[in-house]
Amino acid sequence: MNTLYILSKLFTYLVLPPGVFILLFFFAAMYAKRFRLFFLANATLFYLLSNVYVADWLLKPLEEPYNQPLHVKAVD
Fold first, then answer.
1. Each residue's pLDDT tens digit, 14-61
2. Pairwise CA distance, residues 39 & 32, whole Å
3. CA 4 – CA 36 distance, rounded (Å)
4. Cα dist from 5 to 11, 18, 30, 39, 46, whole Å
5. How much is the pTM?
6. Neighbours of 22 (CB within 10 A)
7. Are residues 44 and 50 in contact, defined by beta-carbon separation less than 8 angstroms?
8. Where are the beta strands (DSSP E) in the chain?
9. Between 6 and 38, whose confidence is greater?
10. How far apart, in whole angstroms, are the C-alpha atoms of residue 31 and residue 26?
């Protein structure tokens, strides 16, 4: 793959809202000595909540009661 393509995709994901906040939490964790664990925990939690798999896992119990198939009679 082209290096420029990879860099453009990486830059895009870092600039989008979840990536920006995760980077801010990591930079804050590097510079803050007292609240380092707090910022790292927030970065990890924010990443997990913005991940598709974890978000689907959390929303599935809420959406399951409404995903009942409709009983439609066949039209001949």
1. 777 888 888 889 999 999 989 999 999 999 999 898 888 998 999 999
2. 9
3. 34
4. 10, 21, 29, 31, 26
5. 0.64
6. 19
7. no
8. none
9. 38
10. 9
Please give the pLDDT value at position 76.
Answer: 65
Write down the domain spans for the chain. Answer: 27-69
Measured CA angle at 56 (ends 38, 61), to 5 deg = 105
Query: For residue 43, what are its two tokens?
Result: 């970065």
Q: How many CB atoms lie within 10 A of CB 28?
A: 16
CA distances (Å), 42 to each of 2, 24, 56, 76, in order? 34, 10, 20, 57
Look at residue 65 and tell me whether its pLDDT is greater than 90.
no
